[in-house]
Design brief:
With about 160 residues, the chain is α+β, with helices and mostly antiparallel strands. It has a domain at about 1-95: Alpha-Beta Plaits (2-Layer Sandwich). The protein has helices at about 15-30, 70-80, 95-105, and strands spanning about 1-10, 35-50, 55-65, 85-95, 130, 135-140. The strands form 2 sheets. A 4-stranded antiparallel beta sheet has the order 2-3-1-4. Strands 5-6 form a two-stranded antiparallel sheet. It is globular. Residues about 125-140 have low confidence and may be disordered.
Amino acid sequence: MRQYEIIFIINPDLSEEDTKGIIDKVKEIIQTLRGEVLKIDEWGQKKLAYDVKNHSKGYFVLLHFMGTPQILTEIERNLKIMDSVLKHQTVRLDEKAEKTAQMLSGERISEKGEKPETTPGERPENSAKGVDVTEGRAADSSPEGEKPPEESKRSGEKGTDT
């Protein structure tokens, strides 16, 4: 089974019971088809960036679940049919996403899943070596006394070559 994340926006004019009914319907589809609901995060009513089906606000719900592609197809089919769902989007999560999230949070993980040992003051692995920071050029570049050759003609001057 694969892990999915689906976000859907429900019509904000619905009653709380109707909103819960839509969320329960999606949960029921997942559980009926032998999927597993991992997390339901109700963000509540938020302002939309642009009007969707003549609504400037919507009730946002984020749902994480494990399931097969058939479960996903059935959920999306039902969400398209429901008039009270303004929009929805599904993303398939993978194992790399978890590692990326941990990396972004500041933790470094090796290929084996272990954190590397670092000492305070250690240089980053991919830092530039041999760069003169004050001058902004490589230490092995031309000496300071030499200047790069200038162009013989400048763009604003007329040439006398005939």
